[in-house]
Amino acid sequence: MFAGLALYGFSLSAMVRASLGVNPWSVLYEGLERQTPLSFGTISAAIGVLVLLLWIPLKQTPKLGTVASIVVLAYSSDLGLALIPQHLALPARIGLLVGGVLLNGLSVAVYVGARLGPGPRDGLMTGVSAATGRSIRLVRTLIELTVLSVGWLLGGSVGAGTVLYALAVGPTAQFFMRWFTYRVG
């Protein structure tokens, strides 16, 4: 679980350093930041709480991984930003973007597959998937596209990397889940 969370944070750093578009949730936070007097971080926390409230009808419960995701992502994202240089040439940035998206999908499979509790947004994904019987691939893609659309309508900035992430992270996570999901018995 902790390895998956650390990779998740590092993958977010790679996408930031690529400077080709942030993930859809960041677009939403940016859009809300433009429409309210709240800071990006405050909005991120508030949305996290709202997403946790959506867990109630989905019968999701927070666990160790839910809390660990907040702490480990923060530190591993900062570490990634410290290690990955800025202002790279376009081919390197494209590599960071594609690698970041693939690593993010892998890391979701690793930490969610440990079954020690997903973070708020990934718990929404697993809860909706379980409640509807729809695939992780479909549910995650629909959540990401919805969040992206709302964020864009509120004035958040969208890049090619944002669209790539929204369309690719769900299928990538589902692809890796088969190898990293802990099964009892």
TrEMBL record:
Key words of the record: Membrane, Transmembrane, Transmembrane helix
Chain segments annotated as coiled-coil in the UniProt record: none
Full protein name: Membrane protein
TM region(s), chain numbering: 37-57, 64-84, 90-112, 142-168
Keyword Methyltransferase assigned: no
Highest taxon above the source species: Bacteria
